[in-house]
Amino acid sequence: MKKINSINVGTKVLSIIAVFLIVLPICFFGMKQIGFIVLGDFLIKASLVVGSIITVISLILLIIELRQDRQLDKYFTNHCNTKLLLANSLCECQKYGNKLVRAEDTCCKICGIHFEKYYDSPPYI
Ligand SMILES: [Zn+2]
Question: Residue 65 C-alpha to ligand 1 middle, in angstroms?
């Protein structure tokens, strides 16, 4: 399963939800009150339904992301004395993230930890 990452999209999603749940219903209600549109009630309900659907989908994705983060944290906590192969044929020390570890190194030059195992990839990429 691919790792879900919502670091840079949180404010955009919240803005879209606010538009559908707050801004558009208020605009449609105002237009309905002055007689500008006839289908005011339908548009308000449609906007609320779309906003609710986006909210539910976002919450489900956030829950999945938090579960993945917990699994990753557990994985790296249990594998802190290992090195992970990177794309540039170097390895990364899983204790503090030193990315200048060579494949043949038996210990990290930064933190001094002795590597016990060698992993090709983390659970999510
Ligand atoms: Zn290290």
Answer: 27
